[in-house]
Design brief:
CATH architecture of the largest domain: 3-Layer(aba) Sandwich
Shape: globular
CATH class of the largest domain: Alpha Beta
Strand order of the largest sheet: 1-4-3-2-5-6
Structural class: alpha/beta
Order of helices and strands: EHEHEHEHHHEHEHHHEEE
Low-confidence stretches: none
Number of domains: 2
Helix content: 25-40%
Strand content: 15-25%
Bound molecules: pantoate
CATH topology of the largest domain: Rossmann fold
Radius of gyration: 19 Å
Largest sheet: 6 strands, parallel
Distance between the termini: 47 Å
Length: about 280
């Protein structure tokens, strides 16, 4: 039976018990409103650890002033039940006061340079500062041996990899493949904002990523592929933040560059911002 913990002292006691028994601890950080994609992260964590902690915390420091912090769906009871069924041992649900004892505004902030200046970093200023600010706290609280992050948030994963290595956190990061609906739409808590009319159009993102990959593999230039992607998304009703092909480190590939590449899209359908990506090798 899953245990819901809301006090840091109780979490520390439980973690210490497990550690003294030599158990390996797996961690899945989330913002709640969990779906099958999250549950698959728990199953993946289970393959690498003896006990699993998932956190459910809607983190105020990673939302911009005009973003969806207040309306972000909060479903703690359903989250705990789903985590229980998925094989999670503890759900860590701290309050904002527990996470940020001096208040979110007065919190010690973390910042990863360089990689956070592009793509979502430039479209959502401060977003990744908020992500690493909370993830560093979560790592200190849970003290996991392994932590699982989804590849849907490709840039977030790259940022977390950088900061775990730079700060020498003794944590192994495991990247989980993106879970998709039958039409290819990446699973996301934000999908539920989509209206019945918008929902079919949302699958255009995945179709466009596949076309971007195929275009590059067939020898089209990067700019041609990106322009065509932008037109396809705009024709489907999206307002585009970006549709780009980058190296695995998220820099522009040189003309004809081969190796690991990734196509990335961020676009809004109405007020719903969706992101997705597709890795491939040239
Ligand atoms: O990917 C998310 O859900 C969040 O950014 C995370 C990692 C839980 C930090 O709040």
């Amino acid at each position: 039976m899953i245990q819901t913990i809301v006090e840091l002292g109780a979490l520390r006691t439980r973690i210490a018990e497990w550690k003294s028994g030599g158990l390996r601890i797996g961690f899945v950080p989330t913002m709640g409103n969990l779906h099958a994609g999250h549950h698959s992260l728990i199953a993946l964590a289970r393959q690498h650890a003896d006990r699993i902690v998932a956190s459910v915390f809607v983190n105020p420091t990673q939302f911009g002033p005009n973003e969806d912090f207040n309306r972000y769906p909060r479903t703690p009871d359903a989250d705990a039940a789903g985590l229980d069924a998925a094989g999670c041992d503890v759900v860590w649900m701290p309050s904002v006061e527990t996470m940020y004892p001096f208040g979110a505004e007065a919190a010690v902030r973390m910042r990863v340079p360089g990689i956070t200046d592009v793509l979502d970093g430039s479209h959502r200023p401060g977003h990744f500062d908020g992500v690493v600010t909370v993830v560093s706290r979560l790592f200190n609280q849970v003290q996991p041996d392994i932590a699982v992050f989804g590849k849907k948030d490709y840039q977030q994963l790259a940022v977390i990899r950088y900061f775990v290595r730079d700060l020498a956190f003794p944590i192994e990061l495991i990247a989980a493949s993106t879970h998709r609906e039958a039409d290819g739409l990446a699973m996301s808590s934000r999908n539920q904002y989509l209206s019945a009319e918008q929902r079919p159009a949302a699958a255009t993102i995945h179709r466009t990523l596949l076309r971007m990959r195929d275009g590059i593999v067939a020898g089209q230039s990067r700019t041609q592929v990106e322009d065509e992607a932008a037109r396809a998304l705009e024709a489907a009703g999206f307002v585009l933040d970006y549709a780009v092909v980058r190296t695995a480190m998220l820099v522009e590939p040189a003309a004809g560059e081969s190796g690991a590449l990734v196509a990335l899209i961020a676009a809004k359908l109405g007020s719903t911002r969706l992101i997705d990506n597709l890795e491939f090798t040239l």
